[in-house]
Amino acid sequence: MINIKYLLVFLFFSTSLAASASTQPANQSVDSQMNAWGEIYSTLETLSNFSWKSTHIPGLIERVVFMADYVKSAVASESSRCDFVDKIKDIACAKNASSRLSFQEAFRCFDALAKACDKTEKLQELGADLPESYFDFRMHNVDHVLDYSDVYFLCVPNGGLKFERFVDGCFHKKPKYYVSLPNHELTDGVHGGEFKKVYDFFQHDIGHAAACIINDKFWPYFYPGYQKLKSIRDRLNCDSKERRVVDAFIFSFFHESFGVLSNSYNVYSFDELKDPDIASKFIKKVNSDIDAFDPFIDNMLLANNVYSVPIFIGRWALNHTIKEVIGKITALGDKGYCSLKTAHKMLIDNFLSKTEVRFEDTLEWSSPDGRLYAVPCTLAIDDIRKQMINVKLTFNGKCYSIECYGPQAEAKNRFEAFHLFKYAGYEGTPKQVSIYNYREVIAIFKRLKTDAATILKAQWGAIRNTQ
Prior knowledge:
The protein is α+β, with helices and mostly antiparallel strands and about 475 residues long. The protein has helices at about 5-25, 30-45, 60-75, 80-95, 105-115, 135-140, 165-170, 200-215, 220-235, 240-255, 275-285, 295-305, 315-330, 405-415, 420-425, 440-465; strands spanning about 150-155, 175-180, 340, 355-365, 370-380, 390-395, 400-405. The strands form 2 sheets. Strands 3-4-5-6-7 form a 5-stranded antiparallel β-sheet. The longest helix is centred in the C-terminal third of the chain and has 29 residues, at about 440-465.
């Protein structure tokens, strides 16, 4: 006979586990989360005068609560963070009850929750309203947010999503962009191992989504070509190397948002495209006519140059850091520009046999009142091969010591190609990119693009031959 005490204990724990399982956010798959977001965005089609800042969307509260539970589970050992998550949930529920939970408000909840999920982030002070989100910052003064794209905020424990999800999301009249929130710091992040922290990873995904949304003003002009691209891609066997090569190329093209940023496409301004005559020329220029598929693919190859740019000594990090120094000296602030005239043209390849590098340059900047300055200067770099370099900048009779990321860091962080090569089945690639092998990586990526174009054109030719 069963002891009644043990039976009660068994029933108690069974009931508790069942209740816990029913509320555990980890039990909702990525597909289920995507379906929920799809239902939310489908309601936008029925709304008139939609505004991402003010229109109340009832289904958003479920997404906010879901992410709150996910984050609370991740920070369960820290009571202060759990309390913080509860406050965010309360704010969201209050706004929902008063029909004020818009996309903007929900995105602010997601941003605050992402910070709470990152245990290295300091908790914010919360009032009745949440502070602006990183999404607000990226989309400052942009009113057409979500008119051109759908943004899905997903709770993904390890952050990463399958290539297929990204590629499938691109081929819609309103493309889908995904922002993933890990529930722990990653062992290895994206872009050369960067963005390991929970909030950094989250911001990185938002940066991609925001860039793509801005550029989707061009989307209708490319959509016929992309639909043809989708029909060809879908003909390829999911497990074939050809499909993996094509998907790696498409992922790089869309996710890095070079597809509509490149000068090879951006030939007219947004305002000019309002003119039907110019718009028709634009369509012809980019060959988005589905009958001109080969030139359309050729333009995609030209546009997708994300891993094709040589590395120069002062391309970004050095110029950016020197701008901060000049800003402190001259009250330049965020206005105007500041650059080294020569350094950004000096290929790192020419300095690999050296450690210390010294050269004369011209420091150019604009003052807040609009005046332009060009001052001779001297730069001395302690070791060009290090990730963090020490630079001595001498101008106007004074020497300033600057520490900043060097070309080695730029090489490591710029190239996110290794997972592309691995997915596409390319063997023999370097394990890590460096200033010594980055041109080899560029060559492999060029081969990947060329292979993808060959596959797509061949499939298109086969289709045409059967018509």
